[in-house]
Amino acid sequence: MSGNSYNKTPTTYEQQISLLKKRGLIIPDEARASRYLQQISYFRLSAYFLPYQKIKDQFNEGIEFDLILDNYKFDRELRLLVFDCIERVEIAIRAQMIYILAHNYNSSHWQDIPEVFTEPYTNRRGDLVNTYEEVQKIIRDNCQSKHPEVFIKHYKEKYDTPTNPPSWMFMELLTIGELSRLYVGLRQNKDKQDIATFFALPHSVFASWLHTLTYVRNICAHHSRLWNREFAIKPDILIKPRKMWVVPLFDNNQRTFYFLCTLKYLLWGANPNNHLSNKIDLLIKKYPNIPVRFMGIPSDKDGVLADWRNEALWI
Hints:
By secondary structure, the chain is mostly helical. 49% of the residues lie in helices and 1% in strands. The chain has two domains: 20-63, no CATH class; 74-310, no CATH class.
């Protein structure tokens, strides 16, 4: 620990505006800026300051409040677009897991077969991982809830055996994080590959992408910054694509654009007629002054962006 004490005190909206102006931000309409600070908060908006400050806490010459605000709006619209696509992919993953595992084990209740899952083990953090027991706990908690899902309530009222509802009901109870852990916890690589094949991926890459999908879904759900972010959970680089993909120039998997590529690739299975390419293109054109290179789109020494739109994946 550093041993330093945090001693910053709360500031008023007027003081916040005064500070921004002192640091070189041009604010033509202070009343309007104050309204946005009330709606968004200084701290959240400050995440969009850094690309416009070559010197810490000093805005570059000519930077106006509206540019910061447009950057915030761009990021918000990007998150909404990504969130919609993740929903489509997540639902397709559920559908494939239900169908393939039910047929591979010839059972409507494969989630109740311990042999479907890996043996309990201790992970690198020292935590016990028991996928089968996690699955059973999710079912128990939902069946014993005071306000269960309608389909769970209907099953319990109509059937005595098996005790648990079928897999297609159970899978609707899972969060995307639980879905990701369930996939990793499958014992047989064949089961994993059968599911991943629908998305034209090796099962190891699919597991990695599903983990990142969960991470980005949570970023979007919590309204966090997506445009200029270094990913804590990186998707594996796709080495041997089975469908249209991007050239290695775009292999910066620490940034948002590579994730957008993985999302577009997954949509080949989840929603082949998607319009993600056009929607991203239109979003960038809507905010022409936003430095989209911070998403991880490569550029040359003069700052000219690589032509991502003509990559095979995005055509």
